[in-house]
Amino acid sequence: MKLIVYDISGKEVMTLVNQKLAAGSYTADFTGTNYPSGVYYYKLEAEDFSEVRKMILLK
Fold first, then answer.
1. Which is deepest, 16, 23, 42, 45, by most CB within 10 Å?
2. Residue 59 pLDDT greater than 90, yes or no
3. What is the pTM for the complete model shown?
4. How many helices and strands, by DSSP H and E, does the chain display?
């Protein structure tokens, strides 16, 4: 499974998860203390599944 955060320009900001995990529910924290407020995207990839979602970081 991979969980990667990108900035608005598509540049990779941080990789939160990059390992094989057993089936189940998991959490991953993105603390944006070193990043400015704004729109970010995260991409979740797991086997045959891939999804990109938008998130807003407010400080």
1. 42
2. no
3. 0.88
4. 0, 4
